[in-house]
Amino acid sequence: MIARPNEPMALHTTWHLGGAADWFLQPETVGQWFDWCRDHPVEGPLLVIGRGSNILVRDGGVAGTVLSTKQWKGLTVQADGRVRAEAGVAVASLSRAALDKGLTGIEFLVGIPGSVGGAIRMNAGAHGGEIGPLVTEVVTCDRHGKRKVWRGDEIQWRYRHSSIPEDQIVVEVALELRPGEGGAIRSKMAAIIERRNATQPLHRLNAGSVFRNPDGDYAARLIEAAGLKGAKVGGAQVDPMHANFITHEGDASAADVERLIAMVQEQVHARFGVTLVREVQIVGRPA
Ligand SMILES: Cc1cc2nc3c(=O)[nH]c(=O)nc-3n(C[C@H](O)[C@H](O)[C@H](O)COP(=O)(O)OP(=O)(O)OC[C@H]3O[C@@H](n4cnc5c(N)ncnc54)[C@H](O)[C@@H]3O)c2cc1C
Questions:
Q1: How many CB atoms lie within 10 A of CB 79?
Q2: What is the per-residue pLDDT for 258?
Q3: What is the ipTM of this complex?
């Protein structure tokens, strides 16, 4: 179990940004987390993170405790389509494990660099698919280790949002997939990877799409049409390849990214009257 003070959050986010968390916990197993909750109840604010691929942590770090699920890697995939995955499993690994068993339905997860817990919280999706409708059960717990089991159909799954309450930590998930044809599944995944490599700036530090797509339109199209592709604040840039990504090369602060987000929102609103809603979560305290 890692339990240490003043952990730089830049080590735990795909933007490589963010000041230190007052306390950082990374239990090796789910069982270890339940034991810890019983013996050392977490006081004060608690932030759960998976792979940090959808969060901007401010430069002043995080007050209270950050819990990382990264080591919770239990995964069983049965040939009949039943899958159980702990929250820290990378969704891309889940997608590949399904391929190994000839199961279809989650090919779209292959290029998403998040964890199962983050994907459930965000109802991650791509290429017309979303994880929510495939979920049969979610096991959560609160900060005291009190477990709760949710049926998949008890949870409301909306675009990049699930109704799981904020105080619940996703611990484990059950999914139901369908048997498919290995060659077709493999080709679909390869096509997704190829498309992402061609359209996303994966060589620069990023957190995926910054804004949700507004109804009937694309955030990237609006940002580009507002003339903002390539716009910069400090080291942060509206990516020249994909306008809904904000990227940097190690020279930005979280404040640069946050200011650029606000600038994009203001200018797109001024130009088109559309309010871009953030997909990326902003957490922590300013420097
Ligand atoms: C290159 C790139 C491409 C991407 N493409 C896509 C895409 O196509 N589709 C898509 O939907 N997303 C995409 N994303 C965004 C991101 O990968 C997903 O939202 C992912 O599901 C987030 O998982 P995470 O583990 O990184 O979550 P984090 O960023 O660690 O956390 C995100 C949110 O989930 C909460 N959370 C995390 N784990 C738990 C848990 N166990 N219990 C409760 N709450 C939790 C956090 O508190 C936070 O609010 C992309 C990101 C990148 C960098």
A1: 9
A2: 98
A3: 0.98
Domain 219-283: give its CATH architecture. Alpha-Beta Complex (3.90)
230 in helix, strand or coil? coil
Contact 46, 143 (CB under 8 A): yes
Burial grade of 108 (CB within 10 A; 0-12, 13-18, 19 or more): buried
Q: Where are the domains of the chain?
A: 2-68, 75-199, 219-283
Mutation choice for ligand 1 from 51, 53, 73, CB with most ligand atoms inside 8 A: 53
Ligand 1 atom index nearest CA of 125:
11
CA 122 vs CA 61, 195, 280, 287: distances in Å: 22, 22, 10, 27
CB atoms within 10 A of CB 86: 22
Task: Give 125's pLDDT tier (boundaries 50, 70, 90).
Answer: very high
CA distance linking residue 107 with residue 271, whole number of Å:
37
Look up residue 119 and give its DSSP letter.
H
The CATH number, out of the four listed (3.40.120.10, 2.170.270.10, 1.20.1530.20, 3.30.43.10), of the domain defined by the range 2-68: 3.30.43.10
Q: How confident is the model over 149-172, as a mean pLDDT?
A: 96
The helix-helix angle for 91-100 and 182-199 (nearest 10°) equals 150
What letter does residue 168 receive in the DSSP assignment? P
Q: What is d(CA 285, CA 281) in angstroms, rounded to the nearest whole number?
A: 13
The reply to whether ligand 1 has any atom less than 6 angstroms from the CB of 87 is yes
Give me ligand 1 centre to Cα 170, in Å: 13
* Mean of pLDDT values over 106-117: 96
C-alpha closest to that of 171 among 66, 85, 45, 250: 85
- Ligand 1 centre distance from Cα of residue 122 (Å): 6
51 lines ligand 1 (CB under 6 A): yes
